[in-house]
Structure formats: structure tokens, C-alpha cells
TrEMBL record:
Name this polypeptide is given: NAD(P)-binding protein
GO molecular function, one term: aldehyde dehydrogenase (NAD+) activity
Domain NmrA-like, chain residue ranges per copy: 5-81
Native source species: Athelia psychrophila
UniProt-listed InterPro entries: NAD(P)-bd_dom_sf (IPR036291), NAD(P)-dependent_oxidoreduct (IPR051783), NmrA-like (IPR008030)
GO cellular component: cytoplasm
């Protein structure tokens, strides 16, 4: 590792990004890191600067600013899975860095196993399980799949030789974020999938279900997927040959659950707080799907196996049982926040 590694974190006060920043500050080699964060909020930027983090006020939508920032970084850690224009600005910055230094910079990008989803609508599980070591299987995914256009652009940049790219694909992430930035009040504590499902059902007044809830998703604890970001960062800094590009896909699953299991846990948690009556879930209606098209996502299958990630030494311990147990604290936090 170089005496000073310039690391740019995009989404530095978000659910994953904030915890990644906290881990970087606690890293045994933190003294060798120069961390920069692109931040929209001036008050949050002020807090980050007290921690020794350089901040730049702005948004991912400011593509020229984003490109310039990336062009100054040795490592960019990014968390926008679906905005191709943002990704293209990042890639232009990586190319500028390569042209200026002759050394390919590193990109660690956050995608997700949403790229694997089918149209089961809760009616069945699938036998198809994707491994992050099966490159042919991943490359057979259609370019129209969720996240896929961004993933393909990133792989193409690696193939062009001006960047070393690594794509992390978490499944359903659970658990309230904790750490220094949470304690300072500047980090989002909540994931998207399960909290979004909880909030919609609170507003609905009765817990719903997609189809029969037989579909299956993988799961990972927030703290343990953040572990992997640091493991991967350490690996690529110590060994530039660490799998990248078309071989640089990393799943981060540790167990599976059915949609019905989440529905029942959410129903019990909301009933325990008197938010809804504990009753058999009712099927989501066409009106429900119109109000929140994302609901259909909960009826899909997305099964993955993190063989490549585990080969780097990642060894998660929390499973779907822990995820189901986390739903009551998640409900309590959302009720308190409201």
C-alpha cells in the first residue's frame, strides 16, 4: 500500500457508506488513508471534517464535479446501483486518473442481487442459484435486468484497461446501522427493502403479501456486508491482481428466507405495538402495486452463493434467523422516528 491512499467515498452518510467511513477511520492503517466524501449537507460536512475527512459539498447529479473528484482518488467506493449517468461520470474520472498517472485506479461499486430477480410473484421458489465464481452464468444475465446496464459499463471500463473494477452484490441487507457516524447523528440507519415494506404496511393498516410468499431471497447483516467492503479493500490494495472486471463480481449472502417469513414477522411486530391487528395477511391488490410498484419486487426470487467473497476470508455468522429477529427493533425504530 502506498504511504497515502486517497479514498473517495460516495454516499458517505448513507446506510452502507456511513458504516464504511466509520470502519475506515478505525482501520489499523487509517493513518495511511486520506478520505474524501461528497456530501449534500453542509452541517454533515462540518461533522465529517471534525473526524479528519475532507468534504466537498455537492451531489451525484453534478457530474463534472463528481468526475473531477474521482480523477483525484486512488480508490472510489460508490453506492449508486442504477444511475448510468452517474456511473459514466465516475468512469470518466477513473480514465482521467489513469491518463494522468499511468496506473489504473480502483473502483468498488455497490450493485445488488436484484439483478437476479424473476417474475415469480410469490407463487414459487426457484432452483437457480448464482455463484460469483460462475462467470458464464453471470454473463448470461440479460442486459435489461435491474442494475445490469451499470454493471456492464463498469466491467467494460476494466476491460479497456483504465480501471480495476470490483462489484459487490448484496442480497437483502438487514439491521440498524451503528457506529461513530450514527452516534453523531449524521448517518441513515435504515436499509431500503424491509423498512420500506414495514412503512407501506403501516400506512395500509393491514399487512399484505405478494402471491403465496413462496419465493426466496438471500440475506446479509449490515455489519457483515460492511466487513466485506473492508476485506475487499485490503485485498485490492495489497494485491492488485485480486479478481476484478468480468471476474470481479462478489455476492455477499449468508442464508435465505421466504417472503412469507418476512410477512409473518412484520405482522407480529406491528401487532405487538398495536399498529395493526394480528391477522392472516391479505394479498396486495392492483391498487397497492400502483401506489408502490416496488411491492412486486418482494415476490421475486434472487438466490446467490458468495464463493468468491468467502475465498477472500469473509466469514459471516448472522443468518435469516437473525434477520427475522431484527424486524421488531426495526419496527420500533421506525415508529419512534415517525
Amino acid at each position: 500500500m502506498s504511504p497515502s491512499t486517497n479514498i473517495l467515498v460516495l454516499g458517505a452518510t448513507g446506510y452502507l457508506g456511513g458504516s464504511i467511513v466509520s470502519r475506515l477511520l478505525e482501520h489499523p492503517k487509517a493513518a495511511n488513508f486520506s478520505i474524501t466524501a461528497l456530501v449534500r449537507s453542509e452541517p454533515k460536512a462540518t461533522v465529517l471534517e471534525t473526524l479528519g475527512i475532507k468534504t466537498v459539498l455537492g451531489s451525484l447529479g453534478e457530474h463534472d464535479k463528481l468526475e473531477a473528484l474521482v480523477s483525484q482518488a486512488d480508490v472510489t467506493i460508490a453506492a449508486d446501483a442504477d444511475d448510468l449517468a452517474v456511473t459514466e461520470a465516475i468512469l470518466r474520472g477513473l480514465k482521467r486518473k489513469f491518463q494522468d498517472t499511468g496506473k489504473a485506479p480502483i473502483l468498488i461499486h455497490s450493485s445488488g442481487t436484484g439483478v437476479l430477480v424473476d417474475s415469480a410473484m410469490g407463487m414459487h421458489a426457484t432452483d437457480t442459484v448464482y455463484s460469483d465464481t460462475d462467470i458464464a452464468q453471470i454473463e448470461a444475465l440479460p442486459p435489461t435486468a435491474l442494475h445490469r446496464n451499470v454493471d456492464l459499463a463498469i466491467v467494460a471500463a476494466d476491460e479497456a484497461g483504465y480501471a480495476k473494477t470490483h462489484i459487490i452484490l448484496p442480497p437483502t441487507i438487514f439491521g440498524l446501522a451503528t457506529g461513530q457516524l450514527v452516534d453523531l447523528g449524521i448517518q441513515n440507519r435504515h436499509s431500503i427493502q424491509i423498512p420500506g415494506f414495514i412503512k407501506y404496511n403501516i400506512a395500509r393498516g393491514h399487512v399484505g403479501i405478494v402471491g403465496e410468499g413462496k419465493n426466496v431471497w438471500g440475506v446479509v447483516a449490515q455489519s457483515e456486508v460492511v466487513d466485506f467492503y473492508i476485506i475487499l479493500l485490503d485485498a485490492v490494495l495489497s494485491n492488485p491482481a485480486t479478481s476484478h472486471g468480468r471476474e470481479g463480481f462478489y455476492f455477499t449472502d449468508n442464508g435465505e428466507f421466504t417472503h412469507r417469513e418476512v410477512v409473518d414477522a412484520v405482522s407480529s411486530a406491528l401487532a405487538a405495538r398495536g399498529v395493526v391487528k394480528l391477522a392472516e395477511p391479505t394479498p396486495f391488490t392492483e391498487d397497492d402495486f400502483k401506489q408502490l410498484p416496488f411491492l412486486a419486487f418482494f415476490g421475486t426470487n434472487a438466490r446467490s452463493r458468495s464463493d468468491r467473497s468467502r475465498a477472500l476470508g469473509w466469514s459471516p455468522t448472522k443468518t435469516a434467523k437473525d434477520m427475522l429477529a431484527s424486524i421488531q427493533p426495526e419496527v420500533d425504530a421506525l415508529i419512534q422516528k415517525a
